[in-house]
Amino acid sequence: MKPYKYLIALLCLAAAATASAHISYTGRNFGSFTGSGLETLTLGSNAVTGDYGWASGTDANLGDTHKLRAYTFTLQNAAIVSLTFQGYTYGSVTNALALPAFSLYSGLAHVAPAALDHDVSAISTAYNNAILGTTNWDGSFDALGNWKIGSDGGSTFADLSSFTYIGNAADGTSANYGSSPATSGYALDASNNVVSFATDTIHGDGLADGVVSGTWTLSAGTYSVFVGGGQYFGTNNAGANTTSTYGVQGSISVSSVPEPSTWALLGLSVVITGLLVRRKAGNS
Ligand SMILES: [Ca+2]
Ligand SMILES: [Ca+2]
C-alpha cells in the first residue's frame, strides 16, 4: 500500500471514530457470556459528549442519545450481572465523567451494516412527535422506562428498535440527579393511540465519587446499557456542558445463578444454624 493510502485509511478510521451521531456499540460490546462460573471484562477508553445526557432522559421530554454511550452484552444462559461505570481519563480525554449514571434494557439497536438508529431520523421524529407532541422532546432516550428509536432505513413504527427497561443506577444523590424525575412515560399501542406507563425512580448510590454500580439477575438474551452524565439541569438543560468530552470506563462481571439445590443447601444451613443457636440459648 502506498503511504498516501495509509493516510486515507487512517483518515477514514478517524472519521468513523468521531462519527458518533448514531447509536453504535463499536468498542463497547462486552461480548457473550455463558453464565457459568465468574466472567469479568473491563472496556476502557470510551467517552461521552456532555455531562447531563443520562439525567436529561429522566424527565418528561426524554433525552438525546447523542449525549450517551451504548454498550451491549449477550447472556447465553441466566446469570447474575454486575455493571460498573466510572469517570476515566485517557489520551486527550482529560475530563473524567464526574457523575456517571446508566440504564439497562433488553434489546439492541440496529447494528451495521444496517442504517444506525438516531433521534432525528424521520421515523424517530414521527414517533416522538406522536407520543410527546411536535418538537416537544430532547430525543428518544427514556432513562427510567421503555423507549424506541429508529434509523433512516425505517418507514413504519414497526421498524423502530425497542428497549425494554430493566433498571438504572446513578452516582450520588438527588442533589446531583434531581428530585423530580418523570413518573410517566408514553408509548403507542397497537392502534397507534398514545398510552402512558409508570416509570421507575432514580436509584442513586448516595455517594458522588465518580463510580456507580448495579447488579441484576437476568435471563438469556441480548442487552443494551446506556451511560451518560447524571447531572440534572432541568427540562431545558440550561447550564449543562453540551459539547465537552468526558471519559468513562465500563466493567461487567457475570456470575452463575445458584442452582435450586444450592439455594436448598443454603436454606438448610440457615435452619440448622438457627436450631443450634436456639439449642445453645436453651442450654444456657
Ligand atoms: Ca430531557
Ligand atoms: Ca458513587
Layout of strands and helices, then pairs:
Layout: H1 3-18, E1 29-33, E2 38-49, H2 53-56, E3 68-75, E4 79-87, E5 100-106, E6 117-118, H3 122-132, E7 147-151, E8 161-170, H4 174-177, E9 184-188, E10 194-198, E11 211-218, E12 221-229, E13 245-256, H5 260-283
Parallel strand pairs: 1-3
Antiparallel strand pairs: 2-13, 3-12, 4-11, 4-13, 5-8, 5-12, 6-7, 7-8, 9-10
This protein binds calcium ion (2 copies).
One calcium ion is lined by residues 171, 205, 207, 209, 211-212.
What would your notes on this structure say?
The chain is α+β, with helices and mostly antiparallel strands and 284 residues long. The chain has one domain (17-283): Jelly Rolls (Sandwich). The protein has helices at 3-18, 53-56, 122-132, 174-177, 260-283; strands at 29-33, 38-49, 68-75, 79-87, 100-106, 117-118, 147-151, 161-170, 184-188, 194-198, 211-218, 221-229, 245-256. The strands form 3 sheets. It has a 7-stranded mixed sheet with strand order 1-3-12-5-8-7-6. Strands 2-13-4-11 form a 4-stranded antiparallel sheet, with no helix packed on it. The protein has a two-stranded antiparallel sheet with strand order 9-10. The structure holds calcium ion (2 copies). One calcium ion binds next to strand 11. One calcium ion binds at residues 56, 59, 61-63, 138, 235.
